[in-house]
Design goal:
The structure is a single chain. By secondary structure, the protein is α/β, with parallel strands linked by helices. Helix content is 47%, strand content 9%. Helix 6 crosses helix 10. The radius of gyration is 20 Å and the shape is globular.
Length: 349
């Protein structure tokens, strides 16, 4: 597997950062979570003046073989239809990227449709969707490696353009199924507690989804040597868009970039990334907690505190982008607020 050289941020300058935050002209600790975010960003970038220059959003699209087992209320063709919608600027992700100044990269990493006619969609197609993991691995070792490298290379591209902060989103019908399996196997939680409605399954649909995923996990454990190994779990059940997102997260951490994490699927990817390289989590800011069953549980596994709780479950990376103004406020606080000495104000705490 491609290797990433990720180091935890050096905490040696933490006292200096805290002193700067505490001497801003405000009561100590009065800006709450903004102060915590400022501390994290300063440590990531090893500076007293963090930057959020040229934010980029990577949206990976791919299809899943498990979709044909009826585990999603939405049909497979919605993946490519939404990718076309994004290319035409009509998606929720497009609107939020425009609002908050993110450069949007649309990436076909495995959509089961020819999207080559759309100039704004980057063609990194590995295959027309993954295999059906009910019967065997979703992807080969070579495909797994290619997906990781694809995500990493796109972060390299963002970095060359001066990007300091990257958010990641996905489009892939049925991708809550591999996310649920990852949550169960990597988070050591009974599968039944990890399976939810996805895009809108009813109770019978959720029951069927659980039965399919249970059968798939049993088959995996019976046929896979070293079945507890993180790489094997990711490769056997994952989607190309999900493994691409993991590669992007790990490269961003390696480059000491700020990573904005979205909802259930991207938090499952964050868990997988953290199991591969625990140091990577230090670079992640979790944008929100959504309504998808299990998302809060996933965040709890990671010990992560999300910024927003707006009942969102759209995906695409929209929750992460919506949280960006709060993160921007934290950076502006430490960079733009005056301190007591310069403002000639007596400390009042």
């Amino acid at each position: 597997m491609i290797r990433f050289n990720i180091n935890r941020p050096d905490t040696g300058m933490k006292p200096d950062i805290q002193a700067k935050i505490d001497n801003l002209n405000k009561p100590k600790g009065s800006l709450g979570r903004l102060e915590e975010l400022a501390m994290q960003m300063c440590l990531i970038q090893q500076t007293l003046s963090p930057r959020l220059a040229r934010p980029c959003h990577l949206l990976f699209g791919a299809d899943h073989g498990i979709e044909c087992e009826g585990v999603s209320v939405s049909p497979r063709e919605v993946t490519w239809q939404q990718m076309v919608n994004f290319a035409n600027g009509g998606g929720g992700v497009n609107m939020f990227c425009r609002q908050h100044g993110f450069r949007l990269y649309l990436v076909d990493i495995g959509v089961d449709h020819d999207l080559s006619g759309y100039e704004s969609i980057i063609n990194k197609k590995i295959d027309n969707g993954t295999g059906n993991f009910l019967y065997g691995p979703a992807m080969s070792e070579k495909q797994f490696e290619t997906a990781l490298e694809t995500g990493a290379s796109l972060v390299d591209k963002c970095r060359r353009e001066g990007c300091d902060v990257v958010s990641i989103g996905e489009m892939g019908i049925a991708n809550t199924s591999p996310s649920s399996v990852w949550m169960s196997m990597l988070g050591h939680i009974p599968l039944k507690e990890c399976v939810g409605a996805g895009a809108g399954l009813d109770d019978e649909g959720i029951k069927h989804k659980y039965e399919v995923l249970s059968q798939a996990v049993r088959h995996y454990e019976e046929t896979t040597a070293d079945s507890a190994r993180t790489e094997n779990i990711i490769r056997y059940f994952g989607g190309f868009e999900m493994v691409g997102a993991i590669g992007a997260m790990l490269r961003a951490a390696e480059l000491r970039m700020i990573i904005l994490v979205d909802g259930f699927i991207m938090t499952a990817c964050a868990l997988a990334a953290a199991r591969l390289c625990p140091e990577a989590q230090e670079y992640m800011i979790f944008g929100h907690v959504g309504d998808e069953s299990g998302h809060k549980r996933l965040l709890d596994i990671l010990g992560a505190e999300p910024i927003l709780n707006l009942g969102m479950r759209l995906g695409e990376g929209t929750g992460a982008i919506c949280a960006f103004p709060i993160i921007d406020s934290a950076a502006r606080m430490i960079n733009e607020m005056n301190n007591f000495d310069n403002a000639h104000i007596t400390k009042y705490f």
